[in-house]
Each structure stands twice: as C-alpha cells, then as structure tokens.
Predict the 3D structure of the following.
Amino acid sequence: MAKKTTRFYCKSCGHEELRWLGQCPGCREWNTFAEVKVAAKTSHKGARGFSTGGRRSETVGLGGKVQPVPLARVASAETNRLPVEPAEVARVLGGGLVEGSVVLLGGEPGVGKSTLLTGLALWWVRQGLKVIYVAGEESPAQIRMRAERLGFSPEKEEGFHILPEVQLESLMETLEEDAGGDGEAGSTVIIADSIQTLHSENIDSFPGSPTQIRYCGGVLADFARRSGHPVFLVGHVTKSGDLAGPKLLEHMVDTVLYFEGSGGGPIRMVRAVKNRFGTTGELAVMEMRAEGLVPVDQAGVLFLSGRRGVEPGSAVCAVKNGSRVFLVEVQALVSTSRYGTPQRVVQGVDNKRVALLAAILEKRAGMDLAGCDIFVKVAGGGRIDDPGADLAIMVALASSLRERPVPLDNLVLGEVGLTGEIRQVADLDSRLREAGRHGFARAILARSEGSKPSRRKKEGMELMTVTSVEEAVALALEPTGRKAGRG
C-alpha cells in the first residue's frame, strides 16, 4: 500500500504548501488551507512520450527512456483537425477539433452545455467517429432522452457510448482499454460531464474540491496527449461567473470556452477565452430550439433587433469578436439623482470603464454628471470588451443628458484616451463594411494623425472624423447630422 503524505491545499485556488498558513500566497484569502493526505509514489516509471503524430512510442527508446525528436519529424496539428458542425462552433475552435487537444467548456446551470455536447457527439458519430460520454451528473436514461430529442437513431448512431463512472482510476482503466493507444489517433472523442464529479482515491478530498479538479483534469489531459484522442471537460462556474476550481486547470487545457445565455432568451453564445489552435475572443451565436442549437442568421445585427427609432440615449458601434464584426447598440439613461449618492448601474460593460468614461466626459466636454444617476446597458444581452466602443458609450451618455438623439444611420467608433483624444480602432475596414451592408450611411471616427479635414466616402458610408470628445459629441448630436470639417 502506498505511503500517504500530508499536504495543505487552498480551498479557493488550489495552492499547495507543505505546512499550514493563515493566508494563501496565491489568492490572498485567509483561513482557506485544508489538510489533505496524498498517496506518495513508491516507484517512478519513465514518462511516456509522443510520436510525430501525437502518439506514444517513437520517442521511447531503450530502457523506457524518452528520446528527443527533431522538430522536422513532428506532424503539424493543423493537418490533424476533426470536422465540427455547426460551423459556428468550428469557428470558435479555430476551424476544427485538433487531435489530442483538451477543451474546457464552462457555463451557468441550464444554459445548454450538455445539449451542445450531445449534438456535437451525434454529428461525430454520423461521420464515423466514436464518442465516449462520461456521465457524472446524469443517468444514461436522461442522456438517451436528450439525444432522442436531438434526433438520435439507434440504427445509425451505434458509436455513441455512455460511461457512467466517476471514480478516476476505474474510468482511466476503461478508457485505456477502449480508446487507448491501439486505436487511430482522433478516432474517439471523450466527453467528461462534468470534471467536478470525478474523484480519485489517491486524493483525500471530496469531489469538486480544487485538489480533485486539478488532479483529475491533469490525468485526463495527459491521456488526451498520449493517445491523440480529444477530450472535452465540462466545468461549473462560480457566482462571479468564473470557472470553478483552481486556475491551474485552465492552464492545463488547450481551449477554454464560456457558454453564455442572453438574459433568459433563446440566444446562446460560445466565447473562446483561450485557444492554442485558433483566435482568442472568437464568438459563436446560436439559438436554442426544440431540436437543439442552431446557428443564427444575420448574427452581425442580432443585437440591433428591436430598435424603436430616433430616441435620446442610444448609439451604435461595431465591435470585433475574434474574426467577426457585430453591430451593437449601447443604451444610456442619465437622470437627476434623488438620493445623496448617485447610482451607477451597468449591464454588458465593465462598471469601472463606464465610470472612467463619464469622468472624461465631465472633464473634457463640460457635462455635469456628478449629481446624476447613470444607467448603461448593451441591448440584446451582449457584452462589450472592445475599446472601440468607448466613444459610443460617451455619445449615448451625452445624448441622454442633453435629450438629443443620434441619427439612426450613424455609426460611432473610437477609443477614448484620458486627455479626451479619439484614437483609431483596429481593423476599421471590416467594421465599416459590415455597417454599410446594413444601411448605415455615416460614421463618426478618429482622424488619422497628420491628415487634413476632407470629405470622403468609404464602403458606401460618409466618414466624419474627429480628434476630441467635445468635437465628437457636438457632431453626433447636431440637429442636421452634418457639419463642416469632416474627412
């Protein structure tokens, strides 16, 4: 029997220490260390290496030692991608599922993580692949019921296998026998739903603890890279919206996806926050229906649906998410505060970012917002991280304060500095192209450094360039929508 040693792990972040500490050096939380007994290894076997195609064997030499492999003999991961359908999910994954990769999918309870993975599994089985679905939270009968709702046919989807096992050692023994090193790389997709339900007998801790999550995630990630079979891990999220468990788990995996809803509606978004094989920040937009998740047509203007007309407190900007452009409406409401401390309520944008932009608007454009309640929202349940939306937020605030609407066909683009200057946004051409396709006729944006005012058109839109916040607000809120000095 293996000898057990004592370690202390932080219950918040999973940081490990040899002795108890009052404050965790990793997350700076107090009184979070718990004593855990860990089975010490009695022997050390040589590490199992990878072959040129992501398999183990070629790097293992005489005596079981791992031998270095020339980089020229290593196969590129780009040539070993499994197809993915729908195309929205394929875009988020970087064009396909890389053999031997580990994907972590997190989201709120009930948002549709299991529905998404079940639909992907059915499509892969129809393409001749094998899927092993590790059922940790649901019974096989529940998974069968969902699969039937998504069109499961027993005669056609024989490669869909359910493995109701949460004990890690038994699970890995089955995976090694059923989908281990003897099969073709990438021929089997492993789905673990969820990583919080798995537990190992080598770790003296309860399932779902940071220690168990880190250990079980590491073992499954090692299996994926040794065997070449891709692994999906479903993860829970905390009240703050972050993935539950140690941050180390996100470093272990190749891709981290967040599955988000949109205020209780049918729209679902899959956002890539980490991707070693594709673009970070890519966004997939789908709609939840009875037959599963289907891509949304005209996703670029999804967040503009329901606009009522010319009303104060609204501005439209074009934001980038990965390789895609979305037209987003920013709404603002500014009213006199009836309490001693004005309110700042924000949805879809960082609260501190709005406070910063409001302070710049006061200082550089002479608008008194100190005694006003400020409410800012991204219409349609979207979320904005793109700095190119700074000017649109400020124009919406100014529009609401002065009760002057921004014309419907105006697009507002620009990053705002602390000194009130307007800076250009990245990939301007694609943003203007998307806005021009949907009827926008004018764009307020930053003037190129050293350029002179001149009137010109691009992508079918009239460009109105500005250099300061004060100039941008005056141009956006002028009654005629036109002013000299554009270019």
The first helix runs from residue 87 to 92. The longest strand covers residues 324-336.
